[in-house]
Amino acid sequence: MAAIGAVFGIDEAARTLYYVLHSLQQRGQDAAGMACTDGSRIVCEKNNGMLSEIFKEDVLAGMKGTSALGHVRMASDEDTDLENVQPIMVRAHQGHFAIATAGNVTNSQALRDEMEERGLIFQGSSDAELIAHLIQFYPGHLFEKIMTACSKLEGSYTFVVMTKNTMYAMRSSDGIRPLWIARCNDGYVIASESAAFTMIDVQDKRELRPGELIRLGEEGERSYFVEQDAREHMCAMEYVYYSRPDSVLGGRNVHSVREDCGALLAFEEPADADIVIGVPDTAMSAAASFARMLKKPYEIGLIKNRYIGSTYIRPSSQQREQGIRTRLNAISSVVRGKRVYLVDDSLVKGFTAKRICKLLKEAGAKEVHLRIASPKISNVCVYGYEGARQDQLAAYKYTDEEMCQLFGADSIRFLGLDAFRLCTGNDACMACMDGHYVNSCPENKERK
């Protein structure tokens, strides 16, 4: 997981970009970086850690310019090297540029092997470096190079390229990854989510269309298409977990989609309980709607420590378990002696579900009925959202009864696939749930 932010043609671009990236921090808390240009040179600062840890006042003060490109990322166990922290800088004879990406190029290994056989050298393993090599590999001006490079890429991705005086933004033809653009005075702002625009004054914001490449320069905004008539297949997990509730995806407000999921989850609920509790923060919308439909009290039974990052991004299962202990606490006065509906947004490996059920029981809950406001995740994601192997997915390994026993829950229910499609739309990518992949990518399916 990662997020891109970019600012073009705006005074103190780095400071504006800081606010954009701050609004996207939930998408990656392992590393952050910014590149900034004043029209004559590009400077870059990046490191492992949170945005606020890296970009102190003295660092921002030194990043002068009217255009900037930034990135926040979540690192996998195999991908913690500083060489993979973005933006990636390229020093080329036609002019320097910086590039940042989000997503997963599914034919990356084949492209990398081909280029290494031709003598190209890679410093890291990021898709940003791969795309940068592709851009440099092909002849022509930069625009032609980017268009040719895009024709070679497969998978689900977005990227932004920044030169000293131009900027390019690309969204892959499958439309799985989101990317937005908006006007800001006489300049532009680009971001992975519409919620990134909330801290600045923008106009005319819109999503890039699938397969769209935008060029920003002295002539303003120009739009091109790598593939005509491409269809959007927004990732369903964007609605469930990754995006902020105030973001809009495919014309749908994320908070409203989560509310709809909670309402449909409550339909024909077989168990009876006393109160409804949501897991902070991404399940709160669904939990409140679930409670309204059942006419049950909605209570705050779990408290989140706001100064602890997402447990999902911690690199090891041991650290993830420790993170849950420090991140969430149950309020015993709320749950003691009560039968509890525990509503969560999704269930992947099951670590969080197991720990929270245990927390509630230790706090005195009489029963815990686990309710998941999305379908079972039983297939590997090949588009870069979920890093788990298929044999690590709880819904793939266990029956409902076995999950109840493993988690310490009294019952468990998931939102059905058909009901979920009503909330997200029929074109949403639900490959991790229904096994229907938007495009073929055999080399990544080996991750099963």
Set out the fold topology.
Layout: E1 2-8, H1 13-22, E2 31-37, E3 42-48, H2 51-54, H3 57-61, E4 67-73, E5 88-90, E6 97-105, H4 108-117, H5 127-137, H6 142-152, E7 155-162, E8 167-171, E9 180-184, E10 187-191, E11 203-207, E12 212-217, E13 220-225, H7 236-242, E14 248-249, E15 252-253, H8 254-265, E16 275-278, H9 284-294, E17 298-299, E18 302-304, H10 317-327, E19 328-330, H11 332-335, E20 339-344, H12 351-362, E21 367-372, H13 394-397, H14 400-407, E22 411-414, H15 417-424, H16 431-434, H17 442-445
Parallel strand pairs: 16-17, 16-20, 20-21, 21-22
Antiparallel strand pairs: 1-4, 1-10, 2-3, 2-4, 5-6, 6-7, 7-8, 8-12, 9-10, 9-11, 12-13, 14-15, 18-19
Helix pairs in contact: 4-5, 5-6, 8-9, 8-15, 10-12
What features would you describe in this structure?
This protein has 448 residues and is of the alpha+beta class. Helix content is 30%, strand content 25%. It folds into 2 domains: 2-232, Glutamine Phosphoribosylpyrophosphate, subunit 1, domain 1, CATH 3.60.20.10; 253-445, 3-Layer(aba) Sandwich (Rossmann fold), CATH 3.40.50.2020. The longest helix has 12 residues, at 254-265.
